[in-house]
Structure formats: C-alpha cells, structure tokens
Amino acid sequence: MSDIILHQYPQSPVAEKVRVGLGIKKLHWRSVEIPRIPPKPDLIPLTGGYRRTPVMQIGADVYCDSQCILRELERRFPQPGYFPERGGGLPWAISRWTDDRFFADTIKLVLAGQGDKLPADFAEDRGRLYMGPDWQQALLEARSELAHLSSQIRGQLAWLDDWLSSGDDFIAGSTAGVADACVYYLVWFVRGRYDGGAQLLSEFATLQEWEQRVAAIGHGSSSDMNPQDALAIARDSEIETVERYDDNDPQHLAPGMTVSVRPDVNAGEMAVSGVVRAVSSDTISLVRESEQTGQVCVHFPRIGYRVDPQ
After folding, report:
1. Whole-number Å distance between alpha carbons of 277 and 100
2. What's the mean per-residue pLDDT of the chain?
3. pTM summary value
4. Nearest CA to 176 among 122, 220, 125?
5. CA-CA distance, 216 to 12, in Å (whole number)?
C-alpha cells in the first residue's frame, strides 16, 4: 500500500485533529507542507479545487475533510480502533458539534482576538471562508464582543470538564478515540492561538489533565515529502476505490453520474466536479483527471457538503 501523505501546515487546527488521529493509531506518514492561504498550486491539481486543510492522499485516492480522512484511517488501520467502547455514531455526532458551533465560536475568538496583529491577506481569506461575504462587518462585531465570545466557549469547555469528571481518562472511555481528536484540536487552538487562552482554560482542572494525556499521544511518526513527489505518486498509482451503489440514496446518486461537490456554506469556495465512483450515506467519491496527477479519486463527506448533479 502507498504511504499516507498529509497535505497540511503546522499551525492548522484541523490538521492537528488529524495528526492526533494518526498518533492514536501510531502510524507513519509523509508530510507535504502547503501554503496557509491560496494559491495552492500543488494541492488543487489533486483535489480539483478544494482548498481547505488538511487533505490526505494515499496513492491516487485523495481524501478531503477530516471526517473522510479519519474514517478512511479507521477502515485501513482498524487497530487500535477509534471507537474503543462502542460504535462510531455518537463520536461522529460529537464531531458535528465541534466542527460547527464550537469551531465557529473559536475561530471568531482567535481571529478577533489578534486585532491589528492579524495579517491583512490572512484576515481576508479566513474571514470570507468562515464568516461569509460580510466578513469585514462580522469581524468588527467579533472584536467588539470578545467577552461574549469567551463566555460562549467557556460554557462549552465546562460541558467537557463536567463529562470528563466521571473518572474516565478519555471522552469515550479508558482509551483515546476519535472523539478526543475531534475535541482536542479546538482546546489546542484556543491555548496556542488566543492570547487569553491559557486563562480561559485555567479553571478546568480535569479538562487540562485530559488535554495533557491527549498531547502525550503524539502524532505518530512523520517525514517530509516534496509536493512534486506527491503529485508523481498520484500520477503513477491506480485508484483503489471500487464502484459502490446506494439503493437508498435520497438523491439517487450512482456511479457514472457527473456531479459537483462543495461545502454546504457560502464560503466563496470552488465546487469540485467529477464522475461518481462510489456513494454511501457518509461519503461521495468522484473520479477526475488533471495533467499533473492523471486520474484520481477524490472523496468527500456527505454531512456538511452539497452534491449537485450536472
């Protein structure tokens, strides 16, 4: 099997979620560092236009969004598992909270809290991506209500602290799982990127002990890779994904159809077009081609993404 290649950069909070996921499974992976803001000339040929971080590549299969990445890691490397006590339904539901409301509050706090220290190009890129077309007004409002945003995050941290006070070392039980990765990355982001992060976390002793346990898991082992080498691997590999139908799919999607996929928010992002290879309740996989990569299969989650037949 081809190497795990993670297209990412060190400061990315969502990449930290995946890095912890790799650490839980003690995996070795190759790291391709990508720019923090577009253009991303060595990533877009792989994804067909998807620009978010991180992206995982295994041969000619390309996985967008941490949902898809962690799900695929669990499929390929089932031990140690991401769901140590029970199935994955509730942990994935937790991930929709952390990636939605918790993330939205956190990104506003971090962006607004940096004030004039925030580089203009980064502010424009992330503001449009996470706050919509009226991001400038939204960012001004966030800067005027940092205390309110802190109170929103404090309340959610208190939920976690209370849950962890039950005595288990991790969110789902005695061993770490995907729920821990899905929560930890935001605690990591608050502490590392918001000036008041340490103070905000300081009242939650149990949460901080859990934070230290997750940090101690590490990220597995990694080695750097040149982006051109990653493109060459895609070009020289065969797609592993087989055709898959879903007779119960509400949109009646099926292999052979041409569709476009994009995040289900108005973030100004480019839709990715391709031919359906596989479809299920949680994943849509498209075959597409570029000169740099040859034919690749790009995978997206269904939850949080819009699929439009063309």
Report:
1. 28
2. 96
3. 0.97
4. 220
5. 19
In this prediction, residue 85 carries a pLDDT of 74
227, 254, 278, 301 from 244: Cα distances, Å: 30, 8, 4, 15
Separation of alpha carbons 245 and 310, rounded Å: 18
3-state secondary structure (DSSP) of residue 290: strand
The whole-number pLDDT of residue 86 equals 72
CA 130 to chain centroid: 14
Using CA atoms, how far residue 199 sits from 117, 154, 174, 194, in Å, is 20, 11, 28, 10
Tokens at 32, concatenated = 């391709």
User: Each residue of 58-96: pLDDT tens digit?
Assistant: 999 999 999 999 999 999 999 999 998 777 889 999 999
d(CA 290, CA 124): 29
Domain ranges of the chain: 89-206
Length of the chain: 310
Residues 172/180, Cβ–Cβ less than 8 Å: yes
Average pLDDT of the segment spanning 291-303:
98
In this predicted model, what pLDDT tens digit does every residue of 154-180 receive, in sequence order? 999 999 999 999 999 999 899 999 999
Question: Are 162 and 204 within 8 A, CB to CB?
Answer: no
At 276, is the secondary structure helix, strand, or coil?
A: strand
Q: Which residues pair with 244 in a beta bridge?
A: 278
Q: Quick one: tokens of 156?
A: 């959610």
- The CATH code for residues 89-206 is 1.20.1050.10
